[in-house]
Each structure stands twice: as C-alpha cells, then as structure tokens.
Amino acid sequence: MNILTVLFVLTWAARGLAQDQTTPGRWLAEAEAAHGAVTNYTAIFHKQQRIDATLLQEEVIFIKFREPLSLYMRWVDEPDKGAELLYVEGWNGNRARAHQSGVLGLVTWNLCPRDPRLMSDNLHPLTYTGIKHLVMNVASNVHRASKAGELGFHNRGEEMVYGLPTRILEIVLPRDEAKGYSAYRMIINQDLASKILIRIRIYDWKDQLFEHYGYQDIELDAGLTDADFDPDNPDYHF
Q: Which domain does 53 fall in, by range?
C-alpha cells in the first residue's frame, strides 16, 4: 500500500470517527440554534402523511413563512394545483382563508385551523407548519428519551437531498406506543451548511412511514413584507 493510499484511508477513518462522536445533546443544540435564527423564508414544502392506515399522495406546496406566525401556501402539483391558504396570527378572527383548486376555487372559506374541512387529510393543524416544528418535535423526543436512557442515536453518513449535501441522522425510540413518544424511528436530513433540518421521515411502531416532510429551495431571510400575507395581493386568488 503506497503512502497516498494510507493517507486516504486514515483521512476517511478520522472523518468517520468524528461523525461517530457526534452526541445527541451537541447536535440538538446546534440544530436548535440554527432554527432559532430563522424568522422568515420561502420554500417548496413536501408533505406526506398516513391517515387511517392509508399513506396519502405527497403534496407539493410553495410556502411563505414569517414570524410571528404568518403563512401563505399555494399547491403547485396536481391534484390540488392552484389551491391557496393564508393564515396570519390575530387576523381574520384567527381563521385561515382558503380555496380549493379548479372550479371549487370560486368559493373562499374562512376556517379555524382545526376545522374538520382542514383536518380531514391532516395529522396536525396548519399552525404546526414550518421548519421550526421539525426540530421542536425531534427535540421533545430526544430530551425525554435521553433522560430515560432509551435513546438510539446514529449518524448514517451523508447524502444529497434537494441538491444539498446533508448529514443523515437516525433517532430510534422505544418500540412501545404506550410510552408516549411521537414515533418509533425518525430519519433526518440536516443541511451541512445551514444546519437546518430539511427533511424528516417518521416511522410508526410497525416501522411503516407515517409522516414525511421536506423543505426544498429554502430562501432564508427572504425579505417578506405585509403584502406577502395580504389576501388582496394581486398574485393571489382569494
């Protein structure tokens, strides 16, 4: 084995060791700090959920998000292409303004976030939308499982997701729904540059996918203004 080969092997071995030494506490603090600095962004939001044992089709949605909670959503893929939703905390009686796609889009609704018409194909109300909720969900489970000595935490290397290099992390929780954790397993993709969690796949106690969320083409600090959350915006169709 020549000297170049030896150096290559040692470099990758050291890299693997550094990855293996990533602790849950240190990693979570890093992720929470990155998400805590985010106040507004635009992105393509990917969402897929299992409802009543059926894994629904993935939804692809363009979103605008600003703190305090202001959310605009426009579905960009069929079958809901063209549907829109607008929610601004404290506006419109804390109700979302929404319309469906196609001819049904002629009717605009004002609905509370937990209205059955919004919740029928959703596990969570719209107020749970956003990249911060990814890290909040992970954090609550990691803190609890770590304290109880029940946490499995694994660095699974790297992969490209939405054109970005990411770190793959697997979180394994007790395979016992009665213990009250959110899931059995979580597979997380963290953007290596921003430290933002850009994709999470959540598996239930049967180890089947039941939640999948991804944020593609995130533009942080997008300079969003009140006009971006105004139903009279000429680009919207409320």
A: 23-82+125-221
